[in-house]
Amino acid sequence: MQKTRKRKQQIQLKPERIEAKSAKFSSGKKEEPYPTHSRPNPEECRAIRDSLLSFHGFPQEFAKYRKTDDDNDLKPDISDVKEESVLDGLVKTVLSQNTTQLNSDKAFDNLKSAFPKWEDVLAAESKCLENAIRCGGLAPTKARCIKNMLGSLLEKRGKLCLEYLRDLSVDEIKAELSHFKGIGPKTVSCVLMFNLQKDDFPVDTHVFEIAKAIGWVPEVADRNKTYLHLNQRIPNDLKFDLNCLLYTHGKLCRNCTKKGLNQHRKESNDDSCPILNYCNNFCVKTTDDIN
Questions:
Q1: Is beta strand 73-76 parallel, antiparallel or unpaired with respect to 67-70?
Q2: CB burial class (10 A; 0-12, 13-18, 19+) of residue 211?
């Protein structure tokens, strides 16, 4: 019986190892998974950013991380972000996986309430840690990831702090974070964009589905190659706003998947979705070009 339980634990950990390896593979070099796929171009990116911004306004949940234009020089407005350490941001992102924002925020608050210091989290019994974050789902997996990451960080740096990442380049940060078991490309990208104010473009389920639906990546694209492609194609000054707006729109609009857009286009002339309007216009232009 003990051998059976051990094999099950190894099977559960396998996806985390695969994700971490993907993060290492993606860092350190500029890859072009689809060099002949010319979309999106800067004009498309700006058009969709502007349309979604007019439609939704900027999402308040991301406002404290947003860069502001000060004398034509983009500088981060970090008055609120300073209260959130890079390590806080990394753990928050881990807890946000496969759950709602409400549940992940509650899980983080419960964690900090039960264990005020990260040293307390590292020293805690796994079951106690799981109980604290259970409302966020996947508690055993997330607790194991957090404890492994904290243990590795303490061994490597001698203290539980990631503020040193602020002085590194994007590729150096990717290399550092990818060493932690269970920390995959999307988690790294979110920390880069939100907590470190770097120009990066995370690809979650919502962004991935919309990108495929509007032809920004080929039909065969997976999420990791979509991440690599979009980070090459989307201008740095548009990445933050466009990412937050696509994520928000994807949550609110059920039409914005490949299947949803095609079905909605057939059945309705509804102009309530700016992505739908963009797709209709793109399809007309493509047909005209062919003719």
A1: antiparallel
A2: buried
